[in-house]
């Protein structure tokens, strides 16, 4: 199901610094935003979603997890990140924990998310 959903998602309403088509951006850390949409038939099956945004140089990664509805007796969540440097050491800026890129990609990241409906978690990894 996840693979099929992934291919059906579309990014729409792309913005940079609240502008749809900026000519130039002078912010050191520009704010990016977008809306993801999927065909309506997928809405009933979606319970949690994760997005990963990776800098072009692969030194900064932002992971956003949103859980819409929690299930009874949920299993531990594992997210396998993609496109990192395998031998690079990354630090979770919130917790200070360190992970190697290959660990995050192949073993996965196990976030601790609040056990409630509509919970979210934002994690930033920076290469050491």
Calculate the mean pLDDT score and round it: 81
Shape: globular
Largest sheet: 5 strands, antiparallel
User: Could you say which structural class the secondary elements and strand pairing correspond to?
Assistant: mainly beta
Strand order of the largest sheet: 3-4-7-5-6
Strand content: 25-35%
Order of helices and strands: HEEEEEEHE
* Cα Rg: 16 Å
Helical residue percent band:
10-25%
Cα distance, first to last residue?
Answer: 35 Å
Helix tally equals 2
The low-confidence runs, each spanning 5 or more residues with pLDDT under 50, are: 1-6
Q: Give the strand tally.
A: 7
In short:
The protein is mainly beta. The protein has helices at residues 2-8, 101-107; strands at residues 10-16, 32-37, 48-54, 60-67, 89-92, 98-100, 119-127. Residues 1-6 have low confidence and may be disordered.
